[in-house]
Amino acid sequence: MVKKIFMALCLICLLFSSSAHAASYSHTENVPNIASIRSITYFDNGDYLIESVPAVTSVQRGYVTGHIDYIYRSSNGVIQWTATLTGSFTYNGSSATCTASSCVTSVQSGNWSETYNHAYTSGNTAQADITMVRKVLFITVQTETAHLTLTCDANGNLS
Q1: pTM to 2 decimals?
Q2: pLDDT digit of tens for each residue in the chain (159 aa)?
Q3: What is the CA radius of gyration of the chain?
Q4: Domain spans of the chain?
């Protein structure tokens, strides 16, 4: 009997220590600095989606590749999922064309999963439509959709 009680107490201590560690970790990881935030969208439940400023990952004369990050956080600041849209462009000073678009999602917390991810190009814009769902006991309790865009101007500037 004493052995069972001891095992139960050890299990409870282990659960509390791991959940405290997870909460402290989630608030500081992948936090863009204020200068790299383009917009924040707030939802009725208090959750919010952070959209970063586009970042150039490769540039050559007439060609540029870049990406934009979207970070979905719960109302208490814990990162739930992220999405990164990457686009490749050609430009010549008078026009620009998107030549490739891809989108990658990553789940960090909260029983989320990706149910739809379609990346495509349109003129000088890389775009993606994604749908993320959160399930509890196999029942969908939350659905979030996002339309991601990354645009290049005629001089190779991303927005």
Answers
A1: 0.76
A2: 434 333 333 433 333 333 333 333 333 344 555 558 888 999 889 999 999 999 899 888 999 999 999 999 999 999 999 999 999 999 999 999 999 999 999 999 889 999 999 999 999 999 999 999 999 999 999 999 999 999 999 999 999
A3: 20
A4: 1-30, 32-151
The answer to whether 26 and 77 have CB atoms below 8 angstroms apart is yes
How far is 88 from 59, CA to CA, in rounded Å?
10
d(CA 56, CA 157): 9
Structure-block tokens of residue 105:
């999602």
* CB-count burial class (<10 Å; 0-12, 13-18, 19+) for 152: buried
User: Residue type for 122, please?
Assistant: S
- In the 8-state DSSP scheme, what is residue 34? G
Beta bridge partners of 117: 130
Q: Are 90 and 62 a contacting pair, CB within 8 Å?
A: yes
- Beta-carbon neighbour count of residue 22 at 10 Å? 11
Instruction: Return phi, psi of residue 26, to 5°.
Output: -70, -25
79: tokens are 């990162």
CATH architecture group of domain 32-151: Sandwich (2.60)
Separation of alpha carbons 104 and 110, rounded Å: 18
